[in-house]
What we know:
Elements (H helix, E strand, L loop, with lengths): L28 E4 L2 H15 L4 E6 L4 E6 L1 H9 L4 H23 L1 E9 L6 E9 L3
This protein binds zinc ion.
Amino acid sequence: MRCPSCGRQIPDDALFCPYCGHEVAGPSFAPLEDPEELKALALTLKEKYLPGDWKCWVDEKNGKLCFGLSFKTALLVRVLKWGRWAMTSTLITALDSALRHAEEDLGLRFVLVRAHAPLGHLRLCYKVSVRKTS
Length: 134
Ligand SMILES: [Zn+2]
């Protein structure tokens, strides 16, 4: 389908446009943007799902959940010269797998809406939606 906001082609099951973040949520999922609920979710992820390489925090202004490397892991990635990209890729795969598990267990959907690296610190931000119970 096409994003109604920016017009780009996006996956049919997308809940948010990966290009502009516009919400295209279907009827079975509702966006989870309340800062307190996101904080509670961040805590659950930290305790039960996230590998220790990742930390998680809430972008309250934009209603997103963001992930970055822990200090120790970021330091390790930094000192690696040739293996840096391979390690980064492995770390992202591990994060992705953790989020897929959380999605299944908790009835959530995580959609990556922003990936950037301010000052070399990898940061991935997700919009979260939750399966409607009714
Ligand atoms: Zn869009």
